[in-house]
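User: Please fill in residues for this 246-position structure.
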């Protein structure tokens, strides 16, 4: 089996926990390497924290793509079955005309404003100013079904056509899952993320909504699901996730 290897360095801007890259962003970078398979359900396994500002090796092969630091495997991505991301949301988190206002209220109740294990996270860190991070603040919905957040992508999130980059859609689907399953301030790391995104459906300035809910808890394992709705309620991304508490 032949493979091609190219160097990759992830800028410090895309950090999650201190010194390492946001897991959803890493997943999106690997998914992007699969080209025509990008809109298929893809699973990314994060084997080790991915360092920032370090030259890594991106290895493309017949079955998917791997990210390495020397001989150490950091992450790998491959195509999976549609069923892996088919979880239906609780009724309170399904799209409806009232969901955007529920999302605004949820952001005001975002637990990370009071206690956040990684306050500088590129996706959900309150220390990130506009233009520096996605600032997706997922707070509880009134029914207790899960968490919900508004997101309006800025111009820097998109390519030259105005379509939001795939790796940022993956990132947007990431952190809300944590806040759906973790206790306030509890550190946890993303271990596996299975996602499907449609980049052309999200454009700069769209009033999107991200929702997340718990799927299960077992010991240190936390299972979550997330959905990304476009301004018109169209499904633009979905994921299932496995988090491991630290």
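Assistant: Residues filled in for all 246 positions:
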């Amino acid at each position: 089996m032949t493979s091609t290897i190219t160097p990759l360095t992830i800028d410090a801007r895309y950090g999650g926990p201190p010194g390492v890259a946001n897991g959803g962003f890493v997943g999106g970078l690997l998914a992007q390497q699969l080209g025509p398979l990008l809109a298929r359900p893809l699973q990314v396994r994060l084997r080790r924290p991915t360092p920032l500002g370090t030259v890594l090796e991106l290895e493309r092969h017949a079955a998917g793509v791997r990210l390495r630091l020397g001989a150490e495997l950091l992450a790998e991505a491959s195509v999976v079955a549609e069923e892996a991301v088919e979880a239906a949301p609780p009724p309170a988190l399904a799209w409806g005309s009232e969901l955007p206002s529920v999302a605004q209220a949820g952001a005001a109740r975002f637990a990370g404003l009071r206690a956040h294990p990684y306050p500088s996270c590129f996706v959900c860190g309150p220390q990130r100013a506009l233009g520096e991070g996605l600032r997706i603040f997922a707070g509880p919905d009134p029914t207790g079904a899960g968490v919900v957040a508004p997101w309006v992508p800025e111009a820097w999130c998109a390519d030259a056509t105005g379509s939001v980059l795939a790796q940022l859609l993956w990132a947007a689907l990431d952190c809300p899952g944590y806040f759906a399953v973790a206790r306030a301030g509890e550190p946890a790391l993303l271990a596996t993320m299975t996602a499907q995104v449609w980049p052309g459906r999200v454009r700069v300035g769209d009033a999107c909504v991200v929702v997340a809910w718990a799927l299960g808890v077992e010991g240190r394992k936390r299972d979550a699901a997330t959905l990304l709705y476009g301004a018109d309620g169209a499904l633009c991304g979905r994921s299932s996730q496995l988090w491991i508490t630290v």
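For context: The helical segments are 23-32, 99-108, 166-181.
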